[in-house]
Amino acid sequence: GDDEKFDGHRIVFTDDVDTTQPVSPQAIRFHRQDATETEDALTQWGGVRSQQPTRVSVGTFDYKQPSLTKRTGLDTLSDQGNLPDTEAYDYAGEYYYHGYERGERLTENRLEAHESLAKRFRGSGGARQLQAGRWFELTQHPLHDLGGEEERQFLLLGVTVHAENALPVSAQLQALPGSLQPQLDAARKAHGLEDEGD
């Protein structure tokens, strides 16, 4: 397809994670990273929780339809452990929705945003195929291997890259154009200091 030929950056705004594509290769191991390993891996992985409301309610008012249900509310699905139940209530202003079904859908959008923030995962390692906006499947992790396939799939919301050269700089490197290295080498030789350590 066209995705293979694209050689740049693309940003996609979406509210449906089902439209995202996997990284390639899709599976990334939770494993040690070593020069003898033939596959990339994540070496650190853990969940980060933040308290979120267990119920989201949205209110509105329409003076032309005073019998319209003026408040919709939904409970979260995620388990927040021993934390107390809390509610986020938002009066969205007049005419925010016209009909209960629309109000319930808008409330569900807000609820999903809170659920997404309740538990996130962070990891690090040498997996070069990671790209924000795509998802991957984590394999060989003791906690996630126990669940179903969805328990091992993670959407990448952000990727930070740190890189360094793993090879020593060769002493045989040629000087870059405009470098003073040839003049320095000539001066060393003229003074009997041919080795750089002298």
**How would you spell out the order of helices and strands?**
EEEEEHEEEH
**For the largest beta sheet, what order do the strands appear in spatially?**
6-2-1-7-8
- Please state the overall shape, judged from the principal axes of the Cα atoms: elongated
Q: Which class do the helix and strand fractions yield?
A: alpha/beta
- The total strand number stands at 8
Largest sheet: 5 strands, mixed
Task: Indicate the low-confidence ranges by residue numbers.
Answer: none
Radius of gyration: 28 Å
* Terminal Cα span: 59 Å
Number of helices: 2
Residue fraction in strands: 25-35%
* Percent of residues in helices: 10-25%
Structure description:
- With 198 residues, this protein is an alpha/beta fold.
- Among the domains are: 2-40 and 126-155, no CATH class; 55-117.
- It is 15% helix and 27% strand.
- It has helices spanning 100-118, 181-190, and strands at 22-30, 41-49, 55-61, 71-75, 87-94, 119-125, 135-139, 153-155.
- The termini are far apart.
- The model has no long low-confidence stretch (mean pLDDT 83).
Question: Can you lay out the helices and strands and say which pair or pack?
Answer:
Blueprint: E1 22-30, E2 41-49, E3 55-61, E4 71-75, E5 87-94, H1 100-118, E6 119-125, E7 135-139, E8 153-155, H2 181-190
Parallel strand pairs: 1-2, 1-7, 3-5
Antiparallel strand pairs: 2-6, 3-4, 7-8
Brief characterization of the structure:
The protein has 2 helices and 8 strands.
